[in-house]
Amino acid sequence: MWQLFQFPLCPFSRKVRLLLGEKGVGYELVRESPWLRRDEFLDMNPTGQTPVMTDASRGILLIDSMAICEYLEETVDKAAMINGPSINRAEIRRLVSWFDTQFYHDVTGPLLHERMEKRLSQQTSPDAKALREAMKAAIRHLDYTDYLLDHRNWLGGATLSLADLAAAAQISVTDYLGGIDWKSHEQTARWYRGLKSRPSFRPLLSERMEMVGPPSHYDNVDF
Fold it and tell me: pTM for this one?
């Protein structure tokens, strides 16, 4: 059986979990705190980053969220998430890269560092300026998702795709950390409500990170 090494607020692990849920693939969660630099985990992934997915019975070790997602797309026929003609698949991959790289760099990563990592590993308070900058960046990024959803049914095109799962993974962690003002982003909020109501998403909303709690609307589908 698959084991997924992750922690509750890892957006890249969330992307993989959403894909596993959509495809109906069973797995066991293994809690990993990458900031602890545990030797046994570093033996699996020298970068010390989550997620890592393994199936010991088959001798399979998968590292990096996009590599894991591509593997699942190639090996599980159900619910293709990098779909359509070549131009559509290219657009899906572009958006996945955008959220995994740019959104994480500007928004999710700074919020995780200030509101989670500093508390858990450094026992220090967050930097107010860094939080403000991340929240300003969130507004810019959600302006872009609003624009995309003005022209498409889903972020990547006509159907649900890995672009939506990657975006929802980053946005859900940002929302947990109180980094989003939903009032001015109704298009994105409507799309996100639809994602939150899917069976693949519900397990994420029930999880909590020690010492860091979400806002009251976080697990409300009709926020």
Answer: 0.96
Q: Are strands 52-55 and 60-63 parallel, antiparallel or unpaired?
A: antiparallel
**3-state SS string over 130-182?**
HHHHHHHHHHHHHHHHHHHHHHCCECCECCCCHHHHHHHHHHHHHHHCCCCCH
Average pLDDT, the chain: 96
Q: Looking at the chain, which residues constitute the CATH 1.20.1050.10 domain(s)?
A: 86-205
119-177 pLDDT per residue, tens: 887 778 889 999 999 999 999 999 999 999 999 999 999 999 999 999 999 999 999 99
Query: What tokens were used for 17?
Result: 């979990």
Q: Which CATH number does 86-205 carry? A: 1.20.1050.10
CA terminus-to-terminus distance, the chain: 36
E strands along 7-145, which residues?
27-31, 52-55, 60-63
Q: Report how far residue 103's alpha carbon sits from residue 81's, in angstroms, rounded to the nearest whole number.
A: 20
Q: Are 82 and 73 in contact (CB under 8 A)?
A: yes
Structural contact between residues 53 and 122, judged by C-beta atoms closer than 8 angstroms: no
**Distance, CA of 204 to CA of 219 (rounded, Å):** 9
Domain spanning 2-75, CATH class: alpha beta
- Give CATH 3.40.30.10 domain extents, the chain: 2-75
